[in-house]
Amino acid sequence: MISFEAARSLVIEHAHPLPIATVALEEAAGRFLAEEIKAPFDMPRFDNSAVDGFCVRLADVEKASNETPVALRLAGTIRAGEAGGRGPGAGEAVKIMTGAPVPQGTEAAVMREFCEESSGTVTVHRSAQAGENIRRAGGEYRQGQTVLSAGTRCSPPVLGQLVSLGMTGVAVHARPRVAIISTGDELVAPGGELGEAGVYDGNSVALAAACHALGVRERSVRHVSDKLEAVIEVLRQAVSEADVVITVGGVSVGDYDFVRDALAAVGAHTHFTRVAMKPGKPNVFATAPAQDASGKTRLLFGLPGNPVSALVSFHHFVRPALLLLMGAREVSPLLVSARMGTPLRKRAGRLEFVRATLAYEEGGVIAYPTGGQDSHMLGGLCAAQCLVHFPAEAVKLDKDEPVTVELLSW
Ligand code: AMP
Ligand code: MG
Question: Atom 15 of ligand 1 has which residue's CA nearest to it?
Answer without folding.
Answer: 305
